[in-house]
Each structure stands twice: as C-alpha cells, then as structure tokens.
Amino acid sequence: MSGHIYDVVDLAPYPRPEPLDEKEKAEATDALLKWLLRERGLIAAFSATPQKKRELVRGYMNERPAHPVSREILALQDRLFWTESLERGIVSPSDIPASDGLSLWQGDIRRLAADGIVNAANKGLLGCFLPNHNCIDNVIHSAAGMQLRDDCAKLIAAQGHEEECGDCKLTRAYNLPARYVLHTVGPMVRREVTKEDRALLRSCYNACLDTALEMGLHSIAFCCISTGVFSFPQAEAAEIATGAVMRWKLRHPEAGLHVIFNTFLDSDTVIYKNILKHL
Asked: Are 198 and 178 in contact (CB under 8 A)?
C-alpha cells in the first residue's frame, strides 16, 4: 500500500497483553487516574469507589486531545482495557448464524471479534469529547484506548481536511476484540430526509465494504449509522443499509464477506428482522 494514506498509521496486528486480576485492575485504574490528573495540572487527593474512579478515567480520556502517550502508560492502559474486553465476553462471527453471508446480532459491538467493526464517527474523526457520553463513537474510542484518537488525528492531518460524509477511514481496534475499526461519517438529518441524505448513507456502507475488500477482511459488523443523534429514521436507514449491502455483494461475489448488522435497541432489531426475512 505504498503511497497510501494508511502509511501514516500502523495497521499490523496489535499484541494482546496479559490480563489483570482484581487487585491489579484497581491499581491500574488509580495509576491512570493519577497520570491523567497530573497531565491536567491537578493532584489526585480524593477517595472514591473503584467504579467512580474508572468513570473519571474514561471521562478524562474522552476530553484529552490527540497527543503522544508514553509506552509505560499505554502498557498500563492496554492491560486494563484488554482485561475489560475479556470480561465483557468475546463473540466470534462464526458463532453468529448467517444466511447468504448476512447476519443480525443484537448486543454490544465492543464484544465482536469481527475483522472490522464500523464506528459512526463525526467529521472531526477524533471521537466524542463529551465525558462518558454513550454514543457509539465515545463507546468505541473509550474501549479501544487513547491510540485510536491519535491514529485518527494522523489520518486527518494526512488528508488535510475534515472527513467527508460517506467516506471511510480504517484504524487498528487496539484493545477491542476486532482487528480494525472502520470510521464513517453518516448524514445528519435536519428536518426531513433528503435525496442527498439517502445517497450519503448508502455511500457510508459502500465505502466501508470497499475498504473491507481492499484490506482483505472476511467479516465486518455495521452499527446503525446515523440513527442516533444524527436523527436518520430507523426504518428507512435499515432499508438503505440492507439494500446497499445486498447490491454490493452482488457486484463482488468473490469477496465472501460476512456482513453483520449489529443492533443495540430492541426497536432496531425488530426492523432488521422484518427486512431480512424477506431477502
């Protein structure tokens, strides 16, 4: 991939560290919190429950701009975050029933050990900066680690402008079970869905699938792009998603790509089930 934009980031498999026991988890959380507070010019002089401390670590990381981190701190973060990934439980694509290379799976996308998971990003591509916000952009960045924001910043710097709606960028997934995260910016619906909105959402799916093919991925999990704070109606978004994937698969029969539609809300699951049973 010489001369490719991805030359600015490392896409080699990320090593898995040794998991931590409960005592080590508490110590790692304390050390990360102390480091984050010191970076902000503050002193860690308070007591709190382990859960509260972990929330503070996530919140401060969410607010932290892209900036190099020492190997020692990253090693500490990686052991804690990978331990949490193991505790959430890892789901292999091979464990999810598929029909013609299509699957529907409801659950936490952070658990999927797919070759790639899709993140509904914003145009800055740097993740969500709101502390502990539960949008998928924040959730994915918070579980992957600080390296994810740094990689995204390098990609944005390399292309020289914010991410265009309907495009796709790929990074390692770091401390998530997946190999890669595919970041795509969906359309934001203002008052009503326009023809351009539909075309841009379709482009998100095509761009991610094209990137998956280029990178030789065998499985990809799509979140429900643009249906959260970007306000794309759930049912129409699902119709566009399934239609785009089906048409892409017909154009690329050689890909053999396992596509997983990942839902979190019960309402989205019902919508996708009704669509997929007619395909």
From this structure: no
